[in-house]
Amino acid sequence: MKKWINCIFKVLQGISVALFTIGISVIASLNLRSIYKYSIQKYDLDKIGQLSKEKLMEDYNILLNYLQNPFAKKLKFNNFIMSSNGEFHFYEVKKIFLSIYLIVLIFVLIFIVIYLIKKYNNKKIKLIKSLNYGANTLISIITVLLTSIFIDFSKAFIIFHKIFFNNEYWIFDSKTDPIINVLPEEVFKLYALVVIIFTLIAIIVYKTIYISYNKHSKLN
After folding, report:
1. pLDDT tens across 150-192, in order?
2. Rounded Cα distance, 97 and 99, in Å
3. Could you point out which of 41, 171, 192, 200 has its C-alpha 20 to 30 Å from the C-alpha of 184?
4. Cβ distance 167 to 44 under 8 Å?
5. What is the rounded end-to-end Cα distance, in angstroms, of the chain?
6. Alpha carbon distances (Å) from 27 to 14, 98, 103
7. Which run of H or of E encompasses 22?
């Protein structure tokens, strides 16, 4: 019984570290505005949207602020019209991003509480193994994501939306929501790859810390 409990505890540690890492990676990628600047140039979004790069970035910044600001109640672009369905979809996306922020915050608070409790009881905090469990969990997740992206990103993109949205408001009509013309599927693929790159960096860091710790422990 104790063996099963330890196994479950290890899995939970791995999932916790993985969720925290992916959350941080998503937030970092979302706020990396240079990705969209690069997308404008690479995919000629200024020509497609018939707007200058400055105006596209202007509305992109408005969107980012709305998605991440819990106090922003209304989304209104300066250069694009938007349907009620389109606005509702962005509201649902906003809830997802705010949930990611909440998850990251919860894990940070949990770590602080554990740290304070351990420090109060004069005990060392052992997070090295947790990082290794998290790295192993992330390797599994990244393998699935990379396979999905390179085999058929369009299908993976559709499945993602069907999982997280219980309606079809995410299927934009360019006539009523022309913003979709400057947010093509390729842009989301690029963001997904950047999230994966950040996550891979985290895996390398976690594994390096774990291996270095083990070597140091054996020497002592």
Report:
1. 888 999 899 989 999 999 999 999 999 999 999 999 999 999 9
2. 5
3. 200
4. no
5. 33
6. 20, 10, 11
7. helix 2-30
